[in-house]
Amino acid sequence: MKSLYKRILTIFLILMFSILIVYIVGILEFAITKKGFNRSLMLIILVGLLLVIIFICFYIFICKPIKLIEENIRNININGGNEDNNSILDILNNINNIIIDNERQLVRKHSAEMLNQKIHFAELQNQINPHFLYNTLESIRGQAIEDEHYVISNMTEALAKYFRYSISNNSDIVKLEDELKNVMNYMEIQKYRFEDKIHFQIKFDELDEELLSSSIPKLTLQPIVENAIYHGLETKANEGELIIRIEKTQKRIIIIITDDGIGMDHITLSELNKKINGNLENLVETNSKKGAGIAMSNVNKRLKLLFGKEYGLNVSSTLALGTEVEVVIPIT
Amino acid sequence: MKEEVLRMENISVYNLNRSILEDFRLYVFKGEILSLVGLSGEGKTALYKILSGENVIEEGRVIFKNKIYTKNQCIVKNRDIFCLGKETILVDNLSVAENIFVIGNKQYKNIFINYKHIIYKTEKLLAKYLPNVKSDCLIKELTQWEIRIVELLKAIIIKPVLIVIDEVILTCSKEEIDQIIYLLEELKNMGISIVYESNRINRITNISDRMFIIRDRKIAKILYNEQYSEILINNFLVGYDMPMEIERQSNIKNETILSMEEVNLGLDIHNINLSLKKGEIIGIFHDENILNKKILDIITGETKVLSGSIIFEEERFHPKSISSAKRKGIGVIPSGLSNEFIIESMSLEDNLILYFIKKYSIGKIFIDHKMVKFMINQFKNIINSRTYKEIINTYSYIEQLMLLYREIICNNKILICMNPCERADIIMKKMIYSALNEAAETGTGIIIINNNIIELQEICDTIYIINNNGEIKKHKIK
């Protein structure tokens, strides 16, 4: 079987010649009977020329494009171009297959990146030998107690707890209670640096017994708290306040981290929101550029990849008045 | 665990290619009062129209009672969302009982209406919340505040899941606001959620459980009740640390422009002794905002004086009508700078031209074009010319400033303002005070009629307080 283009061409040629033959016979018959042979010959030539022109136009505007489409489809068709299967239906089927395949490729690419990111993170964890770290910190703590330097021993204990939580190979999903304990531990460490400059509170409905058992991805809150301190409260002249407020509904947990630090102007906030809500495919790039440390955009993207685009972070800020980060996660 | 009755996610609203709301989000819990506060033009009314089902969702989604409404969908109007906007939902020519129990309560679908039962229930309700009103009273006979109370009583009967209120209290007295607050708390105790929209903080926003502050088309801050402070909220509203106090100096000149001596109107108000000097700003206060309006009526000839005298520019003054008062150089700025006289489809410039043509035409035939052109130019100097030609609806500030300045630039001898800050947010309020101050500097005597004593204290040189017995006392502000 010939290709679609060749079939259309063949049919058209047959049609053209048929018309021409019929016309010639008709004219000749007229010429012989009516004695106008010369005039008939002129007519035959003119009609012939017209038919040639029509044929050329048909070839350029219809046959050639069809031929081009077929060739292109044949080139990119992963099922192999087969000249036997080139009806209109076949062409459409081929196009569908190409689209489906592209989608599959995108999903695979995305999963590959996720996997890369996990591998990267695991490599990072493996570079730090946790046992060595814990043992060293325990030694420092012991020595501090012996020397009656209780502040140092408390700081070391807090740091050990922090590392034990952050870089342990346990599950990526933890209890909200544990995540909050990690934040409190982090604040305990910061207290030695900032003393009473930062007033920290966690507010939630204490009557809700299930709230603290809710699940949350590990290291969701601490990076946000860290940002609040370094970008909001550290440079504030007076004392500052950092509040974590938790609300639980039937389907979601809403955690609002508020500080009354220096805040951001409209342009900086806009740029931050662009960075946070940027392309998911840049997740690996962001990590490799920044090295260790989990940025707010990382937190947002992790939440969106895990739970969907309606979850994640929302940031609002007012210059000189403070910043508010809202974390929304589903109840799982 | 809290129950979420309404959630709005990533809501964006556009008007003439201009963004009004961007990625806006809101969530309301069951049985809470949530106040939504933002300056004029920040998109509160656009949100109201989405929730009331008037407008479609352009972008984002709304989840209400587990039903999801997305792009190009309208929230279906039903009894679960009860909306109270600037226009009343009650039918003027029907009685209180009919409005509460018949309209919107499916009763009209029945063939027989048990009127006796309806009237009994209405009387019981009114006895508790609105004892001065009868169940057979027509809506058009009620005051604005009474209408609002009847609307809230209707909500008590319908028991919706959510009530959305678009700024209902404007010039209510303290007692009237107390009553509204009491009703809102009753509704809250019934488990009904309330979203109250306002362009400034007031006593109702102060009782809310949470406050969402809108600025730059998004949520700028979420505050809980224990965090409320007027300074903090105003700062978040404007986006910077704004000084709250209004600094002004007195512009009082020695010349008295208007005085009332022993003016008597009968039972309502008697023995009015009042004087207004050039450049002075006086306030006339009455808690219910009724008796103080009589002063305006006296000056504009709407109320006849039984005895006493009114002296204007050292001559006896017999006001016949508002137009004759205007010809004498007495300007009146309408209550809350209301936009009744603005044609919304016309541009700012065209509205101004129309106004000045009316003012400066002789016998309504010959127009003083020079004067009209001069006035337009004067106004252009005041307002930012980049926004001058745009359609008036786009900028509510420009609209209100136009209403204010079109009287001020006419160099009236006396300017009377009725509740000028009624619809004003904190920025507009400062603009209004600044404009009045400018007018006082040029020697215009200003009379402000208001039932908000705090606002009067901020701007006036002297305050006349009218009590319910019709007696007036003068207080000089230092």
Could you characterize what this model shows?
- Chain A has 332 residues and is of the alpha+beta class.
- Chain A folds into 2 domains: 4-102, no CATH class; 189-330, Histidine kinase-like ATPase, C-terminal domain (Heat Shock Protein 90, 2-Layer Sandwich).
- Chain A contains 10 helices and 7 strands.
- In chain A, a hairpin with a 3-residue loop joins strand 6 and strand 7 (322-330).
- With 478 residues, chain B is α/β, with parallel strands linked by helices.
- Chain B folds into 2 domains: 4-93 and 138-238, P-loop containing nucleotide triphosphate hydrolases (Rossmann fold), CATH 3.40.50; 256-345 and 391-476, P-loop containing nucleotide triphosphate hydrolases (Rossmann fold, 3-Layer(aba) Sandwich).
- Chain B is built from 15 helices and 22 strands.
- Chain B has helices at residues 44-51, 96-102, 115-129, 144-158, 174-189, 203-206, 230-238, 293-299, 322-327, 348-359, 369-382, 385-388, 396-408, 426-441, 453-459, and strands at residues 4-15, 18-29, 33-38, 59-64, 67-69, 81-84, 162-166, 193-198, 210-215, 218-224, 256-264, 272-277, 281-285, 307-312, 315-316, 330-333, 361-362, 366-367, 414-418, 445-450, 462-466, 472-476.
- Chain B has a 6-stranded mixed β-sheet with strand order 6-7-8-3-9-10, with helices on both faces. In chain B, strands 16-19-20-13-21-22 form a 6-stranded mixed β-sheet, with helices on both faces.
- Residues 385-394 of chain B have low confidence and may be disordered.
- At the A-B interface, strand 4, strand 5 and strand 6 of A face strand 2, strand 10 and helix 7 of B.
